[in-house]
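pinning this so it doesn't scroll away 📌
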Amino acid sequence: MPELPEVENARTVLAQATGRVIAEIDDRDDWVCRPHRPGDIATALEGGTLTTARRIGKTMWCDTRTADGADGPALGVHLGMGGRIVVTDSGGERIGGGPARPDRQPRKTEWDRFTVAFADGGEFRLFDKRRLGRIRLDPDLSGLGPDAENMKPAEFRDRLAAGRSAVKARLLDQSVLAGVGNLLADETLWQARIDPRTPVRDLTRTDLDRLHRNLDRALERAIANGGVHTGEVIEHRHPGGHCPRCGTEMVHGTVGGRSTWWCPKEQE
């Protein structure tokens, strides 16, 4: 699933769709747009505008304004496993997000699961071959903790150390901090040289501050480089993989119900 860096990069693309008058919406895919019926999202948003593209953790949405200038419902956008946002200008050229990613197969219009056509001729599309993305009005944000990218050290210490679970499981709990997924957790713990199985109650203040610093760095690098898959240890998370720092063979286990890799020498 996309983690915070991928969603942040998608949010910057979605921001290119703001401030443009919505002429028409294709919301006929009743699976991607569930629980809404075809036409519900179009009725709510056509004639208005998308205003600000926002994100908390892995959750992304756009504020909206109706045609008469009132605040409209938020438009939630979830990428699923392989969805991505495409925004075009009035001439049909992609804007935002860097160069277009090549597809293994030619693009098919049926892979555009949700489309907003703007009065200026451009579009915003959710492109999703696997149909695992999601569009919905007023997504529920109530269960999310603070965004992992913006936490101060003291808040991070207080929230992470409040539980009794293993540190990796605590990092993955979206009600504690929002945005960390499986790969980012493994990368951060490896960078911080902390065993993912360590109970959070056993972490010292020094451990927690080191973990916070390395989470910030991992997020910054992943956002800049295009996603969590670019992390330093990620390509070594497989049988026979070796720690890129010391060369020790990586070990595998399950922590918090998730597949986990770590260096048994450096993450003691």
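📌 and the second one:
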Amino acid sequence: MKKTSPLLLLAAMAFAPAAFSAPVGTLSVHVLNQQTGLPGQDVTVMLEKQQQDKWTQVASGKTDHDGRIKSLYPENQDMQPGVYKVTFKTSEYFKAQKQDSFFPEVPVLFTVTATNEKLHIPLLLSQYGYSTYKGS
């Protein structure tokens, strides 16, 4: 039986935290404009975590040409269990489309039950309505 070098074991332990940080794509979002059938590009999205009685911003971004943010949660942090909120800034998006909209933003609250749980939140959007669900 081969013995493991203490130096090798120490080196492996030094890099362990990086192996357990939030993987790319831990939390992704997608916006689809139901009226046009096209991706909702350049939609600002904010991510917040509930801390007792207040919300703390974790990250923000804009959807790409395909209406997606593939990795909204910061890669250098673990996504811990708790209550989170993703807010889609729909008013800005519809103003850029030169359209009115009833909802200035769409907040989606959700619960993370396991550290670094892989989650996807799609938003099907129109000027006067929306739907969302837990995607995969």
